[in-house]
Structure formats: structure tokens, C-alpha cells
Write a structure and sequence with these properties.
The protein is mainly α. It has 15 helices and two strands.
Length: 368
């Protein structure tokens, strides 16, 4: 980038990030978007392969930019402050006196009203309405998740007494558990499945408790250490481990065979479903094609749903026939599309209208 005269101050490369990775990337993309586009125009062959073409399309897409802006805002409002108070990734080096369970509880009690105020702010543009809808989902999710934990409830309504002294020693994240699972996963990959999970677990225990470097073992004579090692290799426990290894390999082979059989069964079921649907379409002259779109006006709701089912297994696996709405009591439920909406969905898949609007803000206003 420096050789081509592109601005790159502070950029040190890409760093793996678990929590908030998308928000970090969205923030960096918006900050360096002009340099990225200039780099693509000067160096990259957009038609080299599908991946490069997709990236080149996305970085110049108004909808992608709008989503990056919204997610970057969400990161600044919620994700990054939460990472800070929990001490996740690079935030762990920053001292925070509130980095305890009481501080986390206070954080959510302060943050949720703040998010609600942002959610209820002015919605003059389509982007404002999209932000409001996103914050509505965030607030609803946080309230639902926190309500399941008595510690975050009002202390007067809490059904359980929390031992504050023990809580000081409780981990604030599951990163330690994730680290242990990652180590186990790496060891299993290196062994190629030839070593059982039990053996890996015991190795980890020995490595953790440092038994082999303990003075009770190291102070033994060389012959005594050798005798112990020989005994361990010839013990019945080793035989059990070998039997477990053989059983594990057989299980892996059987699982692979079952997976292949399941794939074949799924393909067969998909073809059988397509044939059954074709029988249904014959009743009304379907399936609908670009040349028979005029038949849409004559179809019943059942026939329209059949057309949607056919498109789902052929051209448009993401075509929808229901939407999720919130009822008066605050719970979500699924609502079926009307006949006109079904016709519009089918028409848009088979023959999309040519006058598609590129104004993202106008499209968002029409949705919300």
C-alpha cells in the first residue's frame, strides 16, 4: 500500500478476533474504503474468480455500505463497550475497575435504557428506520437473555440468593473453556483420530498438574522411573485405551458411511418431492414459467403455495411465504403472505421487474 501511495496509517495487518469481529471489520472497511477501491481498480482483476468478483461487487454496493455503517454503530454502542468491561481480546490489557460481575450488571442496567432512547429517536430516513429496527431486536434479545439469570433481575424479585463472595472467583467469560476445547480439537486433528478423547484428556491433566516434573517422580532413580514407565505401558489401563482407540476408529468409519447414505437419501427425497409437486402443477397448467405468468391471476392460494414450493426446490431456495411479526402481547408469531404477496414473490423470481430502484434509503422507507 505504501509503494502505491495509499494511506495506511496505523494498519498492522489482520488479527483474528472472536467477539465483535464483524464490527471491527465493518469499522476498518468504512475507514479505508477509498483505499480498498483504489487498490482493486489499480491491481486486482475482478474477473479472476468468483470470490474476487464477489468482493469487488460488495465493496461498491450501497446496501453493503449501509449495513457496514449500521453494524459499526452497533459496535460503538454495545459490542466494544461490552468487550471492554469483560476484558475480551486486546481490551484485556486495559484496566477497568468495573471488570467484575457487579460492574457487568450495572453496565446492562445503564446500557439498555440508553439503547431504548436511541431506538426511539427520530426516524426521518430509511437508514434511521433500519437502525431503529436493529436496536429493537437487540434490546428485546438482551432483556430476554438477562431475564433468564436471577443475578441480573431486580434483587427484590430474585428467587435465589447470590453468594457475592463466591461470585468474585467465577469467570466472566467462557474463553477459558473455549481455549480448552480448541486445544483438544488441535490434538485430535494432529493424531488423525488415532488417539481417543480419554487419552487426550489424561494427557492434558498430566500436563496441567505437572506430575512428570513433580519432585516425587523426578527424585526417583533412573531405574525406578523406568520401572514406573514400563509398568504404565503394560498396565491394563493401556489395553483399555487401545481398545477404545480401535472402537473410536470403527465409529468414525461407520459415521462416514452413514453420512454418505444420508446424503443419498436426501437427494432421493428431493427428487421425489419435485415429482409429486409436478403432479400437482398439472392440475392448473403449471409450473409457471416466464411465458405463462398470465396464469397467476387464476390460481388459488393452495396452487400458489405449490408454485412457491416448486421454486424453493429448484430456482429460489430462499423464497418466503411467511413473515415473523410481533403480536400485541409482545411475542413473535409467523404470518402467512396474502395471495397478492405470493404472486409478487413468484413473479419476482421468474421474471423480475426491470425498473429496480437503486436508492437504498427509498427502499428502506418502503419496507418500514
Amino acid at each position: 500500500m505504501a509503494n502505491n501511495g495509499y494511506e495506511h496509517s496505523g494498519f498492522k495487518g489482520f488479527v483474528a478476533n472472536r467477539f465483535g469481529r464483524v464490527a471491527e471489520l465493518a469499522k476498518e472497511f468504512l475507514k479505508r474504503r477509498s483505499s480498498i477501491i483504489a487498490f482493486f481498480n489499480a491491481v486486482v482483476d475482478e474477473n479472476a474468480n468468483k470470490l474476487v468478483l464477489a468482493v469487488a461487487t460488495f465493496i461498491q454496493c450501497d446496501w453493503f455500505i449501509c449495513c457496514a455503517e449500521v453494524y459499526s454503530m452497533l459496535g460503538e454502542w454495545v459490542i466494544f463497550p461490552l468487550m471492554n468491561i469483560l476484558g475480551i481480546d486486546d481490551k484485556s490489557s486495559q484496566k477497568n475497575p468495573s471488570r467484575n460481575w457487579e460492574g457487568v450488571r450495572d453496565f446492562f442496567h445503564e446500557k439498555i435504557p440508553e439503547l431504548e432512547a436511541l431506538r426511539d429517536g427520530p426516524t426521518e430516513t430509511g437508514k434511521d428506520m433500519l437502525i431503529s429496527a436493529v436496536l429493537e431486536e437487540v434490546v428485546e434479545t438482551l432483556n430476554r437473555q438477562l431475564s433468564e439469570m436471577s443475578y441480573f433481575k431486580d434483587s427484590n424479585n430474585s428467587p435465589h440468593k447470590i453468594d457475592e463472595q463466591k461470585l468474585k472467583y467465577a469467570p466472566m467469560t467462557n474463553l477459558g473453556c473455549e481455549s480448552e476445547f480448541a486445544k483438544l480439537d488441535n490434538r485430535i486433528r494432529v493424531s488423525g483420530g488415532s488417539t481417543s478423547v480419554t487419552t487426550h484428556s489424561r494427557k492434558n491433566v498430566v500436563a496441567t498438574n505437572a506430575f512428570l516434573v513433580d519432585t516425587a517422580f523426578t527424585e526417583l532413580s533412573e531405574n525406578e522411573r523406568l520401572d514406573r514407565w514400563t509398568w504404565a505401558r503394560r498396565s491394563e489401563e493401556v489395553k483399555k485405551v487401545k481398545n477404545l482407540e480401535a472402537s473410536f476408529l470403527e465409529t468414525v468409519k461407520a459415521s462416514n458411511i452413514l453420512a454418505l447414505q444420508k446424503k443419498e437419501e436426501m437427494k432421493k427425497k428431493k427428487h421425489e418431492r419435485s415429482l409429486k409437486l409436478l403432479e400437482t402443477y398439472k392440475e392448473h397448467g403449471g409450473p409457471i414459467t416466464e411465458n405463462t405468468l398470465n396464469l397467476l391471476g387464476e390460481l388459488t392460494e393452495r396452487q400458489l403455495l405449490a408454485e412457491v414450493g416448486y421454486l424453493r426446490v429448484t430456482l429460489a431456495p430462499d423464497i418466503r411465504q411467511k413473515r415473523r411479526i410481533r403480536s400485541d402481547c409482545g411475542k413473535y408469531k409467523m404470518q402467512s403472505f396474502s395471495k397478492d404477496e405470493l404472486k409478487s414473490a413468484i413473479r419476482n423470481v421468474i421474471k423480475p421487474e426491470s425498473d429496480v430502484s437503486n436508492d437504498i434509503d427509498r427502499l428502506l422507507l418502503s419496507v418500514f
